[in-house]
């Protein structure tokens, strides 16, 4: 078995798709958290919680739930689902960039960088899966 098969086997049995599936589930659950408790999340991120921020975070949470579900399904798909994986990659890169932008502009506290790091790491993982599948 070569290194490529260890990461993403011929039947997608390597660890990367399972890790990506976990990222998808985590994204879906965190999206649900935004929908259900946006003020708490805003407080954790060190952001203001006056309207319309909670309402907008609920909308963001709904989209996170959808994109997390897409990543979860794409990670389980056989044969490969390259389109879904590419769009999940774009979503994670965009999320990381926007959170860093929020910290740089003072909209989020520095603790939000942990979220940006998670999204950047997830983007790197998805990129590795796409690269190995191609």
Structural description of this entry:
It is a single chain. With 134 residues, this protein is mostly helical. The chain has one domain. The protein is 76% helix and 0% strand. It contains six helices and no strands. α2 (15-36) crosses α3 (38-44) and α4 packs antiparallel against α5. The chain is globular and about 45 Å long. The two termini are 18 Å apart. Residues 1-10 have low confidence and may be disordered.
Q: How would you sum up this structure in a few lines?
A:
The protein has 134 residues and is mainly alpha-helical. Helix content is 76%, strand content 0%. The chain has one domain (3-133).
* Gross morphology: globular
Task: Tell me the Rg in angstroms.
Answer: 16 Å
Q: Please report the distance between the alpha carbons of the first and last residues.
A: 18 Å
The average pLDDT value, as a whole number, equals 86
Structural class: mainly alpha
Query: Which spans have pLDDT < 50 for at least 5 consecutive residues?
Result: 1-10
What is the domain tally?
1
- In terms of quaternary structure, the protein is single chain
Query: Major beta sheet, specifics?
Result: none
Helix content: over 70%
Number of helices: 6
Beta percentage is under 5%
Tell me the series of helices and strands, N- to C-terminal: HHHHHH
Give the strand tally.
0
């Amino acid at each position: 078995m070569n290194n490529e098969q260890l990461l993403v086997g011929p039947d997608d049995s390597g660890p990367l798709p399972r890790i990506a599936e976990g990222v998808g589930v985590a994204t879906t659950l965190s999206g649900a958290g935004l929908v259900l408790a946006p003020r708490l999340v805003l407080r954790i991120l060190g952001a203001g919680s006056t309207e319309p921020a909670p309402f907008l975070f609920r909308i963001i949470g709904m989209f996170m739930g959808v994109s997390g579900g897409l990543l979860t399904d794409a990670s389980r798909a056989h044969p490969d689902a390259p389109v879904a994986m590419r769009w999940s990659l774009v979503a994670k890169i965009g999320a990381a960039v926007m959170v860093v932008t929020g910290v740089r502009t003072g909209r989020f506290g520095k603790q939000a960088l942990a979220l940006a790091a998670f999204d950047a790491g997830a983007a790197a993982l998805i990129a590795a899966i796409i690269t190995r599948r191609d």
